[in-house]
Amino acid sequence: MTEERPLVSGGLHLASHLARPPLSTGRANQPGLVLCHGLPAGAGSARTAGHTFAQLADRIAADAGWVCLSFWFRGAGTSEGEFSIGGWVEDLRSAVEYLRDGGIANVWLAGFSTGGTLAVHVAGSDPSIGGVAALATPSDLSSWSGDPAYLLALAREVGVIGPDAKPDLAAWAEEVKALDPLGAAERIPPRPFFVAHGSADETVPLVDARALADAAHGHCELHVIPMAGHRLRHDPRAIGILLGWLERQST
Asked: Of the candidates 1, 70, 69, 85, which has an alpha carbon nearest to the alpha carbon of residue 37?
């Protein structure tokens, strides 16, 4: 189902899709999951970013019995606004509050690629988040913080920011540094922490997944998927493992 209540972040309306499990699976302390897409890849890809995440939300609701919210960060899909890392962090926090305002107190996060980094960051700074799943997730964003002009060029290429936008690049660099994925991962335990990565990821090296798991000092369920690439959203093995993990958390 598509939720009628609007998701608003910083005055911007964000496109969203809310999936609920069958009524027969309803229970007290119903868990809720926020799905986070990553930065689009390819020229002009912002409009189609995360276009299959609503389908994934429906499957998680039906198969794992979770309320699941997928949404599009500012500048992506049909969401209003333009990209910045700080803005995307604000959007994710707003999505968490959206579920809480709807009566879901037990909110978890799952993110792919950059969305995974944001999920780890928000969970690391919000101890009320129940747990985190990070798939194909970078643990080192120094290429962005060290060269924010490169990040701006990338954002313009994919279309999450307009060609004439002139953001404060020094502020962008500080926003990226503030994510500190490894420091955030260290703060997640003893809450459940799931990391999945393809052994043949051509975009984010496998060492990033191992670094996230190591930062959690062994309190992490790490899955390396043989010969899988970066787009784990479209790898049925990764989705099956994620669903199994979610089902185990809610028993």
From this structure: 70
Model-level pTM?
0.95
In this structure, the strands spanning 7-9 and 132-135 are unpaired
What 8-state DSSP symbol labels residue 192?
-
Which are the contacts of 209, defined by CB distance < 8 A and separation ≥ 6?
137, 139, 195, 196, 197, 222, 224
Mean pLDDT by 10 residues, the chain (251 residues): 76 97 68 96 91 96 96 97 97 98 95 98 98 98 96 96 95 97 98 98 97 96 98 97 94 66
Q: Which two tokens stand for residue 157?
A: 């290429």
| 236: exposed, middle or buried (Cβ count in 10 Å: 0-12, 13-18, 19+) | exposed
Question: DSSP readout, 227-249?
Answer: T--S-GGG-HHHHHHHHHHHHHH
Longest CA–CA span in the chain (Å) reads 51
The CA distance from 188 to 127, in Å, is 8
Extents of the domains making up the chain: 7-249
Q: What are phi and psi of 181, to 5 degrees?
A: -55, -40
CATH: 3.90.220.20, 3.40.50.1370, 3.40.50.1820, 3.90.1150.10. Which one for 7-249?
A: 3.40.50.1820
